[in-house]
Design a protein that fits this description.
Blueprint lengths: L4 H5 L3 H24 L9 E16 L2 E8 L6 E3 L9 H5 L6 E7 L13 E3 L1 E3 L4 E3 L1 H8 L3 H22 L3 H9 L1
Parallel strand pairs: 3-5
Antiparallel strand pairs: 1-2, 1-4, 2-3, 4-6, 6-7
Helix pairs in contact: 2-5
Length: 181
């Protein structure tokens, strides 16, 4: 069985040019985003905070959701990243009562934003007196996952492939000229 790539990819050269350029731009943007995040590779890169639980909000925004909570002694909103939802003990977290003492961890690089109320601070762990709701070991492992680099490589190869395929396609002007001869 022979694959008809012209039928699958279409014959419009400009679409391949734009798609190739966009794919390469995405491949460049992904590592830039990864490099702009704070470095958290081990426990020593985290800053631990203790306080009394105030409240939490779990809202849906667009196609995703946002989980934030507050501690009584701090003006900041603390956010649990969507990447960590699968390792968060949701039912137990939702049952934390007002005034319960918990210990959370944020990146040391975000310590300067603590108690300013200017931004949401990313949380890597949430521990109560009797339970660990979000483990920093599993969060760090998920945060440093190589999948984002694999995605960047995929988009780079896709963009190069589309540009190469475009260069091998026959130009409509050359095609008309060859038919007239």
């Amino acid at each position: 069985m022979k694959v008809d790539w012209k039928k699958i990819l279409g014959t419009n050269r400009s679409n391949h040019l734009y798609a190739g350029i966009v794919s390469i731009c995405v491949a460049i943007a992904i590592p830039c985003i990864k490099l702009s995040r704070p470095i958290v590779k081990e426990k020593s890169h985290l800053f631990f905070i203790g306080g009394q639980f105030k409240n939490y909000t779990w809202t849906r925004e667009g196609r995703g959701s946002l989980l934030t909570f507050r501690l009584q002694n701090y003006r900041d909103n603390f956010q649990i990243a969507a990447d960590f939802y699968s390792i968060l003990k949701r039912k137990e977290f939702k049952n934390i009562s007002y005034g319960d003492t918990i210990v959370i961890s944020i990146p040391k690089a975000h310590k300067k934003y603590l108690n300013t109320g200017k931004r949401r601070l990313m949380v890597f762990s949430v521990e109560g007196s009797h339970d660990v709701y979000l483990s920093y070991n599993r969060s760090i492992k998920r945060y440093n996952s190589p999948l984002i680099i694999i995605g960047a490589i995929f988009f780079l190869l896709l963009g190069i492939g589309l540009l190469y395929y475009r260069s091998k396609m026959r130009s409509p002007l050359k095609y008309k000229a060859s038919r007239l001869e």
